[in-house]
Design a protein that fits this description.
The complex is a heterodimer of chains A (about 350) and B (about 525).
Chain A (H helix, E strand, L loop, with lengths): L3 E4 L2 E4 L6 H7 L23 E4 L6 E2 L10 E3 L3 H15 L8 H5 L4 H8 L14 E2 L6 E4 L8 H9 L6 E3 L6 E3 L16 H5 L5 E3 L12 E6 L8 E7 L2 E7 L12 H5 L14 E4 L2 E4 L2 H19 L4 E5 L5 H15 L4 E3 L4
Parallel strand pairs in A: 1-5, 16-17
Antiparallel strand pairs in A: 1-2, 3-4, 3-5, 6-7, 7-10, 8-9, 11-12, 12-13, 14-15
Helix pairs in contact in A: 2-4
Chain B lengths: L18 E5 L3 H4 L1 H12 L3 E5 L12 E3 L6 H14 L5 H7 E2 L1 H7 L5 H8 L3 H13 L4 E4 L1 H4 L4 H14 L10 E3 L6 H6 L6 E2 L3 E2 L3 H11 L11 H9 L5 E5 L3 H4 L3 H10 L2 E6 L11 E4 L8 E4 L4 E5 L12 H11 L9 H10 L17 E2 L23 E2 L18 E6 L17 H4 L4 E4 L1 H7 L6 E5 L4 E8 L7 E5 L28 E7 L3
Parallel strand pairs in B: 1-2, 1-5, 2-3, 4-15, 5-6, 9-10, 10-11, 16-20, 17-19
Antiparallel strand pairs in B: 7-8, 12-13, 13-14, 16-21, 17-20, 18-19, 18-21
Classes of the chains: A alpha+beta (about 350), B alpha/beta (about 525).
């Protein structure tokens, strides 16, 4: 089913199965969405991505419709804009403030970013209330007062993670996102991968560890790689006031494409543990006591030279770290071979 | 034999693989993000074969679970190979063109009938044959494995018996296939790649190879020892014998993570001079004469190489605490004081020196991996990197079948120690807990260690859920609470090593090791459970 279609007058190659949203994005046209996460099946619940297709009586949801050959799509016109503003105003009725806590402390949420972009202010008053979920888990804040029922969290949890910890429950104003028996996440099948938080387009789900640390505007992001297992997931470290205040996945990393597990998502605060070593320690009278680098180096140099003179380089063993960088590992084996003169160099791979 | 200790293929390829053969990998716990690819492959119709003595989560995603007895992998894979050969299901042109040793293998495997394997492995003969047919008939098939394969005293042979299957069915050199170790630490791949091995210079170039050694001698301005050094496993014995006087350890909590750790501790307590460089005062650092404070991954620039050979940048985001320094800087300063000047301004200069002299990295520099990592081998600046290995050949040699015999466990259960202890990992903790143990909230997910015991064994021993017991092996004993679960098969109990301060699991494990890699048999030792006297 190869062929060409047009979006806003521009020619696009059709890729079988590719949605109109994705195809438009490919040529730099950003159709507004809220319930869309390209990694899971579309739900077409928010209706924000409605577009007109020539020859069809009704507009279609661009996230849930494949771009077909010969299609002529209009993604922007006064009708569409008017519909989108109404839809957004309805969604905003759940989040009437100009920005939510997520916007303020972590970074703009999709809902408020869109409202700002389209200059939509809340005109409706939400009817539902009392949906904050007191959840004592240490990582994920669940405040469904701000939920717009896009079901990205439940779809990501079910389809992508296959953890099935949360699902939509109830009907009408009583509808909510719930675990089995409506308990906390700690009592559910949640693995705390944090993907629900990362996909949430509002402040309904937030990383508890990032709250109360800084203003979002103070933070910069530094791209890096998760330091736990050998998968090598791309991460972004959020840095403010000289500290790593949180982690978000690197959506462009080829390995994980936005996925993380509990360790990479929530396990990096060891960086600022008060138990970090801050000075060299030297054993004096049987006890490790603080020392300067000069003292530590001096002791090592003296001892190394003595042992090398007396017993030769074969009396040394050096074990490098599978947790450190390749550059430091390279230097460690160079140190063993070129400085000490031994091939007794190993790393923690074997044990 | 083919290749290196790295995935032959890429993580992303798993998702489109028609068949995934997961052997000795508890992927959902140890590599959760790779497990997503497996789950998604299954969701879109891929077949999944799981080989594991424990009822791990992956078992829920398959109807082909081969619950073999601990340590009987070779018998299982040899028999699968036998079935594939005898039923003519192997890739005949591929075997003819790209492999050697087929006739010998075929002859060797004659005795590995499904009936024979069923007796050894406990897996029904029909199941073994069915798995063999499924694997062979798949258009392409990806084998993934982890330490359930390698942490045995026959670990190398385990891998070779798996590689035989891939060679037979033409599963090397094509996408969505291969033999893929999922490696456990962020840069365990890189550490080996850059030469932190006693027998290899950087890039897996043997210490004895004249031309290679000369290149490094010229680069470093020294004369190098052509003889391989000793592994850290052998070094422990040499410390006890008094032949090793100084040990310098960077970032490894070896005093609790080694097998038969009682012996390691005795060695480290006895050694004349011990330096430990780490982020924390670990159990290992507590034994040191000098402790050097190191920067974490967030406090230094550099690269990590992941399990699919992808060299990726890590970046300095914050300053190290106090006077802590990056590992590379500490080593360079120490070398300089020892009379060998190392004057690097930035880790990129270290990388460039490595890449200049190492063919598999020659085409990689920091500029090229600024946005996205590159998979080695990458020999030139215009080479895109290598998503899967062995595309057209296995190099100068052909892919060689290895005839490897089944062997019994190094320490089989007996009357005094009737249970097999197997060890492993749990998702929400990492290794000895030096990092996840200091990350807030993790104690609520996994508060402490527990011993997984099959209900039959629990009944026979008269122990119940949550009961504190002592577990004893020939080397030591630990105290731990019991969890009664059919995750463990009868006769097998499971412990992680995540809580060494309360439950030092490796006091129990055996240090009998594979003769080639010297990796100990962490996955099996004989133990008994003792009730506490009330």
């Amino acid at each position: 089913m190869k062929g060409k279609a047009r979006i806003d007058g521009r020619s696009v190659d059709c890729v079988p199965g590719q949605s109109i949203v994705a195809a438009a994005k490919g040529i730099g046209i950003a159709i507004p969405t809220l319930c869309y996460d390209p990694r899971v099946e579309p739900s077409a619940t928010c209706r924000l991505c409605l577009v007109k297709v020539k020859g069809r009586r009704l507009p279609v949801a661009a996230c849930a419709h494949a771009l077909e050959p010969e299609m002529e799509v209009t993604s922007e016109d006064p009708d569409l804009e008017s519909w989108r503003r109404t839809i957004l105003a309805l969604a905003l009725s759940e989040n009437p403030a100009a920005e939510c806590r997520r916007c303020a402390e972590i970074g703009p949420c999709e809902l408020h970013a869109l409202a700002k972009k389209l200059a939509v202010s809340p005109v409706f008053q939400g009817a539902a209330s009392g949906r904050f979920k007191e959840d004592s888990n240490p990582f994920i804040r669940r405040d469904y007062e701000q939920c717009i029922y896009c079901y990205r969290c439940t779809r990501v949890c079910g389809e992508l993670e296959q953890a099935h910890a949360i699902a939509p429950a109830g009907r009408g104003f009583k509808s909510r996102i719930a675990t089995f028996f409506d308990g906390g996440l700690l009592e559910s099948s949640c693995t705390f991968c944090g993907q629900c938080v990362q996909t949430c387009p509002t402040g309904a789900l937030m990383d508890k560890k990032m709250l109360g640390k800084a203003r979002a505007t103070e933070a910069t992001k530094v791209r890096s790689v998760c330091p736990f297992c050998g998968t090598g997931c791309g991460i972004e470290l959020h840095v403010a006031r000289g500290r790593v205040i949180g982690v978000t996945p690197d959506w462009n990393a080829p390995v994980n494409q936005g996925s993380l597990c509990v360790k990479g998502q929530f396990g990096l605060d060891f960086i600022h543990s008060p138990e970090r070593l801050t000075t060299p320690l030297i054993r004096r009278n049987g006890k490790l006591t603080a020392a300067t680098w000069d003292e530590a180096y001096g002791l090592i140099v003296g001892k190394f030279q003595q042992i090398k003179d007396e017993s030769g380089p074969g009396a040394f063993a050096l074990w490098s770290s599978s947790r450190g960088t390749s550059e430091s590992n390279y230097l460690m084996q160079k140190f063993a071979r070129a400085v000490i003169g031994t091939n007794n160099i190993d790393n923690c791979a074997r044990t | 034999m083919v290749g290196r200790g790295a995935m032959s293929n890429s993580i992303a390829e798993l998702e489109d693989s028609p068949l995934i053969f997961a052997a000795g990998t508890n992927t959902t716990e140890a590599h959760p993000v790779i497990a997503l690819r497996i789950k998604r492959a299954v969701a879109r119709g891929a077949k999944l074969i799981v080989v594991d003595p424990r009822k791990i989560e992956l078992v829920e995603y398959t109807n082909r679970w081969l619950r073999l007895r601990v340590g009987t992998d070779i018998a299982l894979y040899n028999t699968m190979a036998h079935v594939i050969i005898e039923e003519g299901l192997y890739d005949k042109p591929y075997v003819a063109e790209r492999t050697k040793g087929f006739a010998e293998l075929r002859e060797f495997l004659k005795s590995y009938t499904p009936g024979y394997a069923a007796e050894i492995t406990g897996v029904p003969a029909a199941e073994i044959a069915a798995a063999a047919r499924e694997y062979a008939r798949a258009d392409r098939a990806a084998i993934v494995y982890t330490l359930g394969i390698t942490e045995h005293s026959c670990g190398v042979h385990n891998v070779q018996s798996l590689a035989n299957l891939a060679l037979l069915c033409g599963n090397f050199g094509v996408p969505n296939a291969g033999v893929n170790p999922l490696r456990g630490q962020n840069n365990v791949q890189g550490a080996g790649d850059v030469g932190c091995l006693p027998n290899y210079l950087p890039g897996y170039q043997p210490t004895g190879a004249g031309e290679v050694r000369e290149r490094w001698e010229k680069a470093w301005g020294v004369t190098l020892d052509p003889n391989p050094g000793i592994t850290k496993v052998t070094a422990i014995d040499e410390i006890i014998r008094g032949n090793i006087r100084a040990v310098y350890i960077v970032g490894e909590n070896t005093a609790v993570s080694d097998a038969n750790v009682g012996k390691t501790r005795r060695a480290l307590e006895a050694v004349e001079f011990l330096i430990v460089q780490d982020l924390f005062l670990t159990e290992t650092a507590e034994l040191a004469h000098v402790v050097l404070p190191a920067a974490s991954f967030a406090e230094a620039d550099g690269t990590f190489t992941n399990t699919e050979r992808r060299v990726q940048r890590v970046r300095k985001a914050v300053e190290p605490p106090g006077t802590a320094k990056p590992d590379w800087l500490i080593i360079a300063e120490l070398a300089t004081r020892l009379g060998y000047p190392m004057a690097y301004n930035h880790p990129s200069e270290i990388w460039d020196e490595l890449a200049r002299n190492t063919p598999i990295f020659a085409g990689i520099d920091y500029e090229r991996i600024e946005l996205q990592g590159i998979q080695w081998p990458c020999p030139t600046r215009d080479h895109p990197g290598t998503p899967y290995l062995h595309k057209d050949s296995f190099g100068p040699e052909k892919g060689s079948f290895q005839a490897v015999p089944h062997v019994a466990l190094a320490e089989p259960p007996d009357e005094a120690y009737p249970l097999v202890l197997t060890t492993g990992r749990r998702r929400s903790t990492y290794h000895t807990g030096t990092q996840t143990g200091r990350a807030l909230g993790f104690e609520e997910l996994v508060p402490r260690e527990w011993l997984e015991v099959n209900p039959e064994d629990a009944r026979a021993l008269g122990i119940g859920e949550g009961e504190e017991v002592e577990v004893a092996s020939r080397r030591g004993r630990v105290r731990v609470a019991v969890k009664v679960t059919d995750r463990s098969p009868p006769g097998v109990v499971f412990l992680s090593f995540h809580f060494p301060r309360e439950t030092l699991t490796n006091l129990l494990t055996t240090d009998v090791y594979d003769p080639i890699t010297e990796t100990p048999e962490f996955k099996a030792c004989a133990v008994r459970i003792e009730k506490l006297r009330g």
